[in-house]
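Data availability (excerpt). The following record was deposited with the supplementary files.
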Amino acid sequence: MSKAVVFTLGCKVNDVESASLAHGLKELGYEVSDKLGYADLYILNTCAVTSEAEKKSRQLLARAYKYNPQAKIIVCGCAAQKNASAFSGKKGVTLITGARQKSKILSLLDKEGTSIDDFDGAYDDLPLPESLKTRHFIKIQDGCNNFCSYCIVPYLRGRSRSRALREVLLEAQTSKAEELVLTGIDISSYNDQGNRLTQLLKALSPLEKRIRLGSLEVRVIDEELLQTARGMPGFAPHFHLSLQSGSSAVLKRMNRKYTGEQYLEKCKLIYRYFPDAAITTDVIVGFPGESEEEFAESISLIKQVGFAQIHCFVYSPREGTVAAKLPQLSLTVKEERKARLLALEKELRDSYINKFIGKTLTFVPETYQDGRTLGYSENYIRIAVEGKVERACKVKLIKKQSSDLCMGVIDYE
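Predicted structure:
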């Protein structure tokens, strides 16, 4: 049996697409792995969200070639879409495709050359990935229309396209997983013939599964969405609501379509429907022109929201974006602000988790290692339970093991 490796860098969407390609390869008779090792075929799904991600994408070629110089190497993903010439002519590379229309890869395994597709008018349906027993990511959308001034993704992934609601529902219904995570490049723009994210949640509501939303934009948070979510028995009260900056002036330079005040009001609306919700976010520090006063505005808003978790990124210029042409801050300033934000993030995360010590939450197991089962609660607290747990159950949190892990015991009451 021929061996194939589908190796992934980057976002959850890339992970889902790679899982779909892996399933398709298995149906073609391949033995498939997601870890680099000896293989007859390599599909390298690359990333270009940062210059470091692009560098890692290029380095993958040498690593794959070293395992088997006779293997075919197919390069796809955002780094290939952005700069196909960076991979062309490299040892072992037989085919280069891009970030779009990845479904065609399975029909091009014996082809050579470069096949970069700029078409983005329709959603690209990949084979259904294998369903995991616990947590399963369902891609519902691709592309982005936002064109934030710091982001290269819309130029690589193309305009927003949505998957047919019936196809999403079919994958959800056939999945064996106890938790389904809806993911995409911008799921807030989901729109299948007038069916938006709220209508999709209503369609998924009857399923006896936990439903979790991926990263959201401020504009999608409204009364109808939150009323629908609250009425769903399996809805996970975890909202990853992208912030990027708490300064309205910086948000305007970022081409984000909201103010700091509007963002705060949306968070208050979430808490009104879900008082114990975990609101998590992304923040960029050191954006071009960010003053100390503007950074202080971010810190103030972050404290008011009380985030359960913050992903902090130091701004890095991306060639081809508007922000890359603006005057840049020094790395010293960026790193100092990052350190201050991370200190606050730890304080807020500890505060959020401590509220649930002694309380019972719903635990969905994911991995078993070193005699413990690890998984997440509905509000995205990472929990470890002694012994092997194979199905969702009620777990009482007994203590905080570390900054991102709690110990729990099964609650049989």
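Summary of structural features: The chain has three domains: 3-115, 135-354, 360-410.
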